[in-house]
Structure formats: C-alpha cells, structure tokens
Amino acid sequence: MNFESETFTEALKLMRTEHQVTSPYHKNNSKQANQFHKTLEECLSAYLKETRRYVANRLRTNEFEQKQKYDRTNRIKIRDFGDDVLIRQILSKNKYKKAGLFNDRSIL
C-alpha cells in the first residue's frame, strides 16, 4: 500500500528523487527516545511512590478515626454487678503470691 499523495509522487518524479521510508520506531534504536523513556519512568515512579504513601497514610488515619467514632458511640460498661467482689479476690490472691505464701502449684 502506498499512502503518498499524488502531488507528492509527481513532485518526486519531477525532481528525479526516490522517497526513502524509514523503519517503524523501536525503543532500542534511539538513544534520545531511550533517555526520554527512562526520565519519564523515573518521574512516574516517584509520583506513584508518593501517591502510595499518601493513600497508606490516609487509610491509617481513616481507620483510627473510625475506631474513635465507634468508641464514642458504643460506650461499654466497664464493670457489671458483682465484678468488684471478683476483682478484690484476684487482687488479694496476687498479694499472697507476691509475699510467697503460695507456691506455683497451688490453686488459688
């Protein structure tokens, strides 16, 4: 297939010249194009790293904000009826353990 215009073909005939068509572009053929691609790749890489960092920070912030919101809206009662008695028993057993009155094998 010939994609040249008729005018261009006629001009070539009048000037008695031959039109040279170059081969299609290949990345490895041109040093200037290689350098451009390398520079472009570095710029995009830096941009993507920054974007990833921003997204990661934003996700952490969102998770923290959601946890705080959940904690504010869902108040949990710390102690139920009778918990004070259990806490006192546990604390008193720990006192005896620290004093060495019970060995490790005894059941408290």
Automatic annotation (TrEMBL):
Molecular function, one GO term: nucleic acid binding
Name of the protein this chain belongs to: Transposase
InterPro entries named in the record: RNaseH-like_sf, RNaseH_sf
Gene3D superfamilies: Ribonuclease H-like superfamily/Ribonuclease H (3.30.420.10)
